[in-house]
Amino acid sequence: MYWSARNHNVFAAVNYQASEKVSLFGNFVWSDGRGSLGGIALDTTRLPGVPAGYNYAAMSELGRYSALNAARTQDVLGMSYTFRPNWILNASYYFARFKDRSPYLLDATGRVQGVEAGLSYVF
Known about the structure:
This protein is mainly beta. The protein has one helix and five strands; from the N terminus they run E-E-H-E-E-E. The chain has one domain (about 1-120). The protein starts with a strand and ends with a strand.
């Protein structure tokens, strides 16, 4: 048997210093992955016996259920504000999409978004 995979990724980021205290940033990530399992060949003539309840013909079809074909994008926008020497307030917005193009157990297609905030001290 064999496993075949192909993955493509793109990442782009932008940072902009709007003022001495404020910086803006954004990034974009795109991923596309495809993979499959194939060539499963089970030769029952080489075995002394078949275990009860075991279906070698059905096992040969396993490759049909291993296909990976998914795409994902992720966008982040944010800002940093230096309000005192060494103290920075950070905030960002996150949005991601996932597309499962070959669901066989369940369709994991969906999206997620969120907001993050934090406080940093720079030594």
